[in-house]
Design a protein that fits this description.
The chain is an alpha/beta fold and about 550 residues long. Helix content is about 45%, strand content about 15%. The chain contains 20 helices and 18 strands. Helix 7 links the parallel strand 11 and strand 12. The relative contact order is 0.08. It binds one RNA strand of 76 nucleotides through strand 8, strand 9, helix 6, strand 16 and helix 11.
RNA sequence: GGUGCUAUCGUCUAGUGGCCUAGGACAACGGCCUCUCACGCCGUAAACCCCGGUUCGAGUCCGGGUAGCACUACCA
């Protein structure tokens, strides 16, 4: 019988969603879509002490931004959280009643017991016995319903004494876990401890119990999660068995971890701060500890680039293809092509992906994304210099901005970088790059510029922007009218083309950089070009 | 310490016993293009953790080392 594919992403609202978690969500999503199944989102908030306000919204918004769609459970819809599906509630904190039933079932069937040991007592035990483990060897020395008379247990509970329910792990049994990525994993139950399943202190189960109960009730067919869960997978198998659900137990797939780019170990929040790149999809303001974490979205990343980048960190298709759309990923993804070993987070590759996807966007789209950045930059300059340097009237038209963006986009990886590449279009140079001057500003340059100024003054406003496209050998060459004016003049006086043009460039840009000079003069216009020329001539005497 | 997982260029990876003189991509380096800086294009350098075994033949299978990582909570 073919079981309907139902997978879930079950984050904990303890802060911003880590990029590794995003990848787990992505793989779940790809798997669900490929099999025409359901992608669920469930919130695992069974640790009341670690709850962070806003984390849930953050997680849902991040997935929404990335295009990782949710079919059931909690999801974001136009900025509002909505719940869909008939297997709810989808927040574990709202499922207390359900867990009570199953805790009782385990207690009644003898698969679990009640324990009263306080944290302090447990600590003492750990200090006393090296490698202490609460299990078959030690549980009879502890304060629990296995060692105490039933009426005493009832009395303590009635008194309001805090207790936990522990899973009774049978010793010396080889537990087999079939993993879709790693094959058969066998672990002896002796190394498992009697895990806490439920704590009366906050009337909530722990992850292990809630996870099994929910996956069963929500009819999850495949559990795709990080490798850090592999060691507890045998416990989960035992739990399914204790409930009598082994026949409908989901399949497991444990994903390799995302590692630090330098050194070793799991990628952590700290690494982002330390190495200067985001480890979260969106910027997050943690209300609990007041920290702010940078995000991919705010850093100028395109969601499709983040998806592509993440997809290839631990998975690879059959060929040499690197660029994948979400639809292609859905088609090509397969768990047996997921690597077994951890992947160091290659931030440089991420930048490259963003560059690729940026080039695929239209100039108009990029201009729209760049507009807020531009406005902000211009306003800070304006306040700093009392608007002396703003040369381009007040507003830049969308059309004009798209044109500018088109000239420089191939040299940036991120939208905000457009400013560094295009700032001279909006602000006249106030100083001239020393290195460029040293190399390109010659003794004759002031005289050359003087003559060039005179020459350019003769060009009509109309001719200034004129150009024609020459097509030959599939190459499109733009011949500008100004080119036809200036080049003969250079040739006639036997000036060096490089010498004149570079000096001219410095006058307009302030440095030896930027797109083709006639593109610059076109955008700047005659008036502004000549003004910058005059300013430079007097400044660089 | 215990248990488990993993091991190909600096990084992500292709490789499922002969197609491997180990392929691609990022990064690095060099060249070309060019009025500049970039982009782009072309090229260079760069890896099978070690030791055994199986086999006519091993990066690929097996065993043992070694190393890295994860887990070892009334966290998830």
């Amino acid at each position: 019988m073919e079981r309907r594919v139902r997978v879930r992403f079950a984050p904990s609202p303890t802060g911003a969603l880590h990029i590794g978690g995003v990848r787990t969500a992505l793989y779940n999503y790809l798997f669900a879509r490929q099999h025409g199944g359901d992608m669920l989102l469930r919130i695992e908030d069974t640790d009341s002490t670690r709850f962070v306000p806003g984390a849930e919204e953050y997680i849902l918004e991040a997935l929404d931004w990335l295009g990782i769609g949710i079919d059931e459970g909690l999801r974001m819809n136009n900025g509002m959280i909505e719940t869909v599906g008939s297997h709810g509630p989808y927040r574990q904190s709202e499922r207390r009643e359900i867990y009570h039933t199953y805790v009782k079932q385990l207690l009644d069937s003898g698969h679990a017991y009640i324990a009263f040991d306080t944290p302090a007592e447990l600590d003492a035990k750990r200090a006393e016995i090296p490698n202490f483990q609460y299990d078959a060897r030690t549980r009879m020395q502890m304060r629990n319903s296995l060692t105490m008379p039933a009426d005493e247990v009832q009395a303590l509970i009635a008194k309001g004494e805090k207790y936990v329910v522990r899973f009774k792990v049978e010793p010396d049994e080889d537990v087999h876990v079939h993993d879709l990525i790693r094959g058969e994993v066998v672990i002896n139950s002796n190394i498992l401890d009697d895990k806490v399943l439920y704590k009366s202190a906050d009337d909530l189960p722990t992850y292990h119990l809630a996870n099994i109960v929910d996956d069963h009730l929500m009819e999850i067919s495949h559990v795709i999660r990080g490798e850090e869960w592999l060691p507890s997978a045998p416990l989960h198998v035992l739990l399914y068995r204790a409930f009598g659900w082994e026949d409908s137990m989901p399949e497991f797939a444990h994903l390799p971890l995302l590692l630090k780019p330098d050194g070793n170990g799991k990628l952590s929040k700290r690494d982002g701060d330390r190495l200067g790149f985001p480890v979260f999809p969106l910027e997050f303001h943690n209300q609990k500890d007041g920290t702010v974490s940078s995000g991919y979205r705010e850093s100028g990343y395109l969601p499709e680039a983040v998806i592509n980048f993440l997809a290839l960190l631990g998975w690879h298709g059959t060929g040499d293809q690197e660029m994948y759309t979400m639809d292609q990923l859905i088609k090509e993804f397969s768990l047996d092509r997921v690597s077994k070993s951890g992947a160091k987070f290659d931030y440089e590759k991420g930048k490259w992906f963003n560059h690729q996807y940026l080039q695929l966007r239209s100039n108009e789209e990029l201009a729209e994304m760049f507009m807020p950045v531009l406005k902000e930059k211009l306003s800070t300059i304006q306040t700093k210099t009392q608007s002396q340097t703003i040369s381009n009237k007040d507003a830049v038209s969308n059309h004009q901005l798209a044109k500018i963006v088109g000239l420089v986009k191939d040299r940036v990886n991120f939208v905000p970088e457009l400013w560094e590449q295009a700032n001279f279009f909006f602000v006249a140079p106030t100083e001239y790059d020393e290195k460029s001057l040293k190399k390109r500003w010659k003794e004759d340059s002031p005289r050359h510029m003087q003559e060039l100024l005179a020459l350019l003054e003769t060009v009509s406003e109309e001719d200034w922007h004129k150009n024609e496209q020459m097509v030959n050998d599939q190459m499109v060459n733009t011949i500008w009218h100004l080119d036809k004016v200036v080049m003969p003049w250079i040739a006639e006086h036997e000036y060096g083309v490089g010498i004149v043009m570079n000096a001219f460039r410095i006058c307009l840009v302030g440095a030896a950089r930027g797109p083709h000079i006639w593109n610059i003069t076109d955008i700047l216009g005659k008036e502004e070009t000549l003004r910058r020329l005059r300013t430079a001539i007097s400044a660089l005497q």
